[in-house]
Design goal:
Length: about 280
């Protein structure tokens, strides 16, 4: 078998050389002979096969030789992609921060009867309940116990302790915080809002002590009433999601979804009365 293979190879080579010689000789003639044509018809297909095989081998060798370059290019592209992703995250963060600050500035301009101190939230406590926040502004910045913390979306809570450069804010989710409130559509102001959690620990609030003849309804907006001057009047608290009748059937209560998502806030405004009393422990609005 090996003998026949070698013989076939030698035959192909001889025919190819003969064909090339005949082509060279016939270049000067306008026509080729019958023999030249016959040899060409035999040799050309064989040469075509050898050409294709040789081309595939060269391409395969080239691919293998290029593997290191491909790997380097892949590493480079991954590095560039990682940088672009980091830049995109940073851009989105700056864009979101700019939007929040723009809205807060707009709110401050709308409620110009007060002064405001902007503060960053630097700590949270209460676990998933988010009952308290620590901010990076304190008495050195004019922030004192009893002042109110808000965002452009609404009420956050009340300052309960201060240091020179820090303060603690008790949030609306804290059940110890009670806020005099009113129903925006009816102007009823006999209720008190306190924070609650549902069975899934979602942060909600409840408006207590509404009279049975109250016209309150779902989707009503609840605002601070300003009674007692502990809170500025007209600060948004949340939206009514359902109405309840108490067990004694003498009062109504309303479940409220707060406008401020305590899990997402990063900055707050501290509301400062323009006419602060000399006794900073008696903040009134």
């Amino acid at each position: 078998m090996k003998f026949f293979k070698n013989k076939l190879t030698v035959t192909i080579i001889v025919l190819s050389v003969t064909f090339l010689i005949l082509i060279t000789q016939s270049a000067e003639r306008s026509r080729i002979s019958f023999v030249e044509s016959g040899i060409g018809s035999v040799v050309n297909p064989v040469q075509g096969v050898f050409y294709k095989v040789n081309k595939k081998i060269r391409n395969s060798i080239g691919f293998v030789l290029n593997i290191p370059d491909v790997k380097r290019e892949n590493v480079k592209l991954k590095s560039e992609n990682s940088k672009l992703e980091s830049q995109l995250v940073e851009y989105k963060s700056l864009k979101d921060e700019n939007e929040r600050l723009r809205k807060m500035l707009n709110f401050r301009n709308q409620r110009s009867e007060y002064n405001y101190v902007g503060a960053d939230i630097v700590g949270k406590s209460g676990g998933n309940y988010l009952d308290e926040f620590t901010i990076n502004k304190g008495s050195n910045d004019g922030v004192f116990k009893g002042m109110i913390a808000i965002t452009n979306e609404g009420l956050v809570g009340q300052v309960t302790a201060t240091g020179g450069s820090w303060s603690t804010v008790q949030s609306l989710s804290n059940e110890n915080l009670a806020v005099s409130a009113m129903v925006d559509s009816t102007k009823e102001n006999s209720g008190v809002v306190k924070g609650i959690k549902d069975s899934q620990n979602n942060i909600l609030a409840k408006l207590y002590f509404l009279p049975m003849d109250s016209k309150i309804k779902e989707k009503d907006i609840i605002l601070t009433s300003g009674l007692g001057r502990m809170y500025p009047k007209g600060i948004r608290i949340g939206e009514v999601t359902s109405i309840e009748i108490d067990k004694g059937k003498v009062m109504k209560n309303a479940i409220i979804k707060p406008y401020v998502d305590l899990r997402k806030i990063e900055e707050v405004f501290i509301v400062i009365p323009k006419n602060m009393p000399e006794n900073k422990e008696e903040v009134k609005y």
